[in-house]
Amino acid sequence: MRRLLHLAALLLLLPAGTAAGRAETLIAAMSSHQIQITSNYTGSQLTVFGQVERDGRSVSRGDPYDLVVTVRGPRRMLLVRQKERLGPIWINAIQRRFPENPVFLLVASSRPIAEMMSPETARRDRIGLVNAERTSQSWYDDSASTTLFRESLVRIMQGKGLYAYEERGVTFLSGALFSAPIDVPATAPTGSYTVDVVLYAGGVPLARQQTNFEVIKTGTEQRLASGAYDWPWLYGLVTVLLALFFGWGASVVFRRD
């Protein structure tokens, strides 16, 4: 009886051990963890790079590896309004709020997402511009109106250059090494940015890694912003004095004798 119980225990542990032996490990890093904004800042580019580590004892997969990189910027309340025509004018009608939504969103993949996984998997795993901020409840109870407003939000932010999708933005340098450039425009807000890297094969997620970077102001701009925030009364007084000085100077220069 003990031998049978021991054999049953081994059979139960065998699949778990086999699965653990086949698990991939994803290693990702950033070329820089900080972007500094100065007076002549026109945008910047960072690179996400890394490799896929696989247990040498595991059997190679039949499906190729796929990677999806999602970059999310600082979160704000975003508002989308639907306009309706009332006679000769257009007015704001229905509106929808998206609280705690990223102002910057970039999705890059090694090939088109539609070729990597089904639409249901993309919604479930929050892959893609429209799916990135879906909640767990909205996977199945999204109304047509909510979907329309979410798609409109993505379209508006794409027009501002703050949302983007690169369907071949991730490049495999070899069977395991990869890199993905991240273009951060000059209009991107300051704050902390998170970078999620997800490894797929055959539409199944295998591993996930997260890193981050930040966008900060430096130089005179940062000192002025910090001064206005820390000493608002002094900043206001200096501003008034400068306005009076330049106004007086202009009157002296352009006065008519």
Short description:
With 257 residues, this protein is α+β, with helices and mostly antiparallel strands. It has helices spanning 2-21, 113-116, 119-124, 138-141, 144-159, 219-230, 232-254, and strands at 24-30, 34-37, 44-54, 65-72, 75-86, 89-102, 105-109, 163-166, 171-172, 177-184, 191-201, 204-217.
How would the blueprint of this fold be written?
Layout: H1 2-21, E1 24-30, E2 34-37, E3 44-54, E4 65-72, E5 75-86, E6 89-102, E7 105-109, H2 113-116, H3 119-124, H4 138-141, H5 144-159, E8 163-166, E9 171-172, E10 177-184, E11 191-201, E12 204-217, H6 219-230, H7 232-254
Parallel strand pairs: 2-12, 7-8
Antiparallel strand pairs: 1-3, 3-10, 4-7, 4-11, 5-6, 9-10, 11-12
Helix pairs in contact: 6-7
Summarize model confidence as the mean pLDDT.
83
- End-to-end CA span: 117 Å
Strand content: 35-45%
Shape descriptor reads flat
Helix content: 25-40%
Number of strands: 12
Describe this structure in words.
This protein has two domains: about 1-215, Immunoglobulin-like (Sandwich); about 220-255. It contains seven helices and twelve strands. The protein has helices at about 1-20, 115, 120-125, 140, 145-160, 220-230, 230-255; strands at about 25-30, 35, 45-55, 65-70, 75-85, 90-100, 105-110, 165, 170, 175-185, 190-200, 205-215. With about 260 residues, it is α+β, with helices and mostly antiparallel strands. Strand 11 (about 190-200) and strand 12 form a beta hairpin. It has a six-stranded mixed β-sheet with strand order 2-12-11-4-7-8. Strands 1-3-10-9 form a four-stranded antiparallel β-sheet, with no helix packed on it.
